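anyone seen this seq b4? input:
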Amino acid sequence: MRADLIALLPELMLATLAMAVLLAGLASGKARHGLLGAGAVLALAATGVTLWLAAGATDPGAHFFSGMFVLDHFAIFFKALFLLTAALVVLLSHDYLKRNDYRPGEYLALVMFATVGMMTMASGVNLAVIYVGLELMALSTYILAGYFRREVKSHEAAAKYFVLGAMSSGILLYGLSLIYGATGTLDLATLARVLASAKPGPSALVGVALLACGFLFKVAAVPFHVWTPDVYEGAPTPITAFMSVGPKAAAFAMFLRVFIGGLAPLAASWIWLVGVAAALTMIWGNVAALTQDNVKRMLAYSSIAHAGYALVGLVAGGPAGVNSVLFYMLVYTVTNIGAFGFVILLESRGYAGETVADYAGLARRHPAAAFGMLLFMLSLGGIPPTAGFMGKLYLFAAAVNAGYVWLVVVAVLMSAVSLYYYLRIVLQMYLREGDGAEPATLVAAPWTERVIWACGVAVLVIGLLPAPFLAAARAMAGAVGLL
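predicted toks r here
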């Protein structure tokens, strides 16, 4: 029992500190934004230290809670990524919450509870545990999407997200029940052995298909993507940044753990389904983004397309495919949070920040801001020497080596298409004049600017020196099959 509690200590600590932030927020009302935000960041940092200590005190191959929970290198990588994402979003949210006069306590606590759910998903090696973590994450993000109670768009975003998310959870749960009925287990290691030893029946195959549909919804893949543009547009911008990165990375951790691990013996049955979904996701995400004038909706469709790119690594499978997905999740995190950070920056004083036309003349008025946005757009488009180029390079190389050349051809063509809408913003910033209505001074919280610059530096460093990050991803990814 002591070893079990040590392995679960990061989640227990973060959940406890989230409740403390919630109670502190109720006591202080709308005041003390800075103090509560600093407390949330410190809580996430303390959880990171606890994760490091727990990892050192446990055997990476050991299982806990009757084999339902593991703290291997794969889980540690994703948990550290989730904590980093949550910390960056908390820092981006400080001025945003203060400016809109909303209580910070509940908001920050919900971000932390969602992070607890994501961390649980990364360590789950039993489908029941993974589902519990998924629902904790989902319920928290449903509320966060509608957190701006005075905004109609926020209400609409939360309602759509909740209804469609509940439907997808029901589909996923039905798939779990069919798999359990066919195999008698929800443990991923036992599931792999049972499926390898006997030919699965129709109920098991239907269960796998339903499970894949539920997972594809969580990563916003076509045709389960319809909620994404409306939810991303209506949610508070920092939460849009959070949902585009954190829950998506958690869903891919779950996808890799379950399909590359537990359902590996049925790869011939599900890999074509995921491959077709990846191709459709890349095509529709990029083509639909071409017509968007709202930057948040454009980035929503961009997020759909990037889910398709990451699915290419899942289809490739093997160590190279898993390595490439982990590396891509890191790259996408710093790039997308930086891009949404600039939307928040423009919203901070006077700029609407949501339409492409709002960026007209930005290079003349604020050259540093324009250069930063240029950097993130190039990274999302996969242009060297940014991190986005290296992320796509290793994903596509893994797929080519695995024999999925057709999927890489689709991915490369769609990457070329994506440059059109990314460069639309660049064109507005550098070659168009504003209408003169924008304020002359761009004002934002210092932490917002620091987060943006930190993400910008990370994009360049990873793009120019990818070797250490690839080595780290390679070391962490090796445990995914050790269920």
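DSSP finds 19 helices and two strands in the chain. Residues 121 and 130 are 5 Å apart (CA to CA). kinda curious what u guys think
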